[in-house]
Amino acid sequence: MGNCGTREESAVVANAQVQQLNSFSPSVKNASSDKKHNRSFSDLSDPSTPKNVDDSRKNALLDNVIAFTLFELETITKSFRTDYILGEGGFGTVYKGYIDENVRVGLKSLPVAVKVLNKQGLQGHREWLTEVNFLGQLRHPNLVKLIGYCCEDDHRLLVYEFMFRGSLENHLFRKTAIPLPWATRMMIALGAAKGLAFLHNAERPVIYRDFKTSNILLDSDYTARLSDFGLAKAGPQGDETHVSTRVMGTYGYAAPEYVMTGHLTARSDVYSFGVVLLELLTGRKSVDKTRPSKEQSLVDWARPKLNDKRKLLQIIDPRLEDQYPVKAAQKACSLAYYCLSQNPKARPLMSDVVETLEPLQSSGASDVPTESLIALPDHRMHRRFAGSGAGCRSPNPNYSPGGPTACRVR
User: Fold this and answer.
1) Binding site for ATP, residues?
2) Residues with Cβ within 8 Å of residue 358, at least 6 apart in sequence
3) How many Cα atoms within 13 Å fall on the side-chain side of residue 47?
4) 332: nearest Cα among 273, 373, 284
5) What is the rounded distance in angstroms from the CA atom of residue 180 to the CA atom of residue 182?
6) Listed residue (258, 384, 389, 274) closest to 333, CA to CA
7) Chain-centroid distance, C-alpha 110
8) How far, in Å, are 191, 197, 303, 332 from residue 342 at the CA level?
9) Which of 17, 18, 99, 188 is the most exposed, fewest CB within 10 Å of its CB?
């Protein structure tokens, strides 16, 4: 069978193809096991996306993406060679590759990342299709760009622009990684916030639902781009206050009210953003079982300190070696405090988060590490707070900053 839903095919595919698309589903593992391993898990009953690629094409959603053949993607990854692997996740394995006119006439020369669905993995056809649908129609500088897809027999693949510096997770937590400077961390936080704000303010709002450091990819300039939209969900419309759904996401990042009730709102994403901002500020993982019991949950350990002027700066990543603007750190900690509020209505909107982070951007944001670029297989691939403060943290251990400034919420 050839590619399903290619540009050359008619709007309606043969019944056998449609049946095959709709019948392909993953094996879903026990949710408690997923939480134990801090992995995402999927909701196969989610009806918010079209049932097949052709439904999307009839809705003109996929005009900007390329339908690749399996042979073409095997060619650019050297038959998915192990030394071409960039990483692995709940969806499957990601390979590096390079497309140009040798692959197909008219293709722009471009390094790409090819994500291959693991047929025995935690995600399946529905998540693959959700990602195609959302990224096929959404374009923003802080969202990863979907170049194309492949749907051939039971093979499901996605092709993205290649992000040279990999994930934020690796830069924050890999032992061999050079610590990110303060300015770079704030630049990444702002970029990720802009991506979420764009989704929340779309004509039909989108709730990302799996915001975490491993899903924030960085280009060569450390610009943040959100990736992996397999768990994204269309937001509430009209008089609806929330979307009811089975609880999904990643342990340590999901908002508490969503975990308890299954009620999903944009404020659920705001909580997850607060967790990531806390990871950027502290250099600690959201959940770390290697730490003492009272410090294993980052939010439980750090949030009380965010509102204590005597302890506020004690949680900042020691690898920064006090090289950060004190007032900016105070503002960022206060922002994290409000994003992590137990009351969803007390959390700021992502548009407010963007306005809060913009003044915190330092002129030193271009001072970023040059190491850790991901190797490519071809030589061709070779405002709701005022001010940010300019002074670095005082070496005086008795320095006592003021308490967090209130964040305006709606």
Assistant:
1) 115
2) 190, 383
3) 1
4) 273
5) 7
6) 274
7) 22
8) 25, 21, 11, 18
9) 18
List, for residues 251-301, the tens digit of each pLDDT value. 899 999 999 988 899 999 999 999 999 999 999 999 999 999 999 999 999
Each residue of 313-347: pLDDT tens digit?
Answer: 899 999 999 999 999 999 999 999 999 999 999 99
Encode pLDDT of 158-210 as tens digits: 999 999 999 999 999 998 889 999 999 999 999 999 999 999 998 889 999 89
Enumerate the active-site residues: 210
What value, to the nearest 5°, has the Cα angle with vertex 285 and ends 332 and 352? 30
Residue numbering of the annotated binding site: 115
What is the Cα–Cα distance from 203 to 408, expressed in whole angstroms? 24
Q: Which CATH superfamily is domain 66-161 in?
A: Phosphorylase Kinase; domain 1 (3.30.200.20)
DSSP states of 345-404: GGSPPHHHHHHHHGGG--GGGG------PPP-SSGGG---S-----SBPPS-TT--PPPP
136, HSE (Cβ side, Cα atoms, 13 Å): 26
CA 195 → CA 112, 224, 259, 346, 355, distances in Å?
Answer: 21, 8, 23, 21, 13
- Tell me the three state secondary structure of residue 95: strand
Asked: is 166-360 a CATH 3.40.50.720 domain? The reply is no
CA distance 251 to 37: 9
Q: Give CA–CA dist 17/23, Å, rounded.
A: 10
Instruction: Please say whether the beta carbons of 186 and 168 come within 8 A.
Output: no
Residue 325's nearest CA partner among 248, 385, 247, 253 is 385
Q: What share of the chain is helix, strand, coil (3-state, %, to 5)?
A: 35, 15, 50
pLDDT, averaged across the chain = 77
Residue spans of the domains in the chain: they are 66-161, 166-360
- pTM, rounded to two decimals: 0.75
* Cα separation, 231 vs 126, whole angstroms: 9
Q: Give yes or no for residue 385 having a pLDDT over 50.
A: no
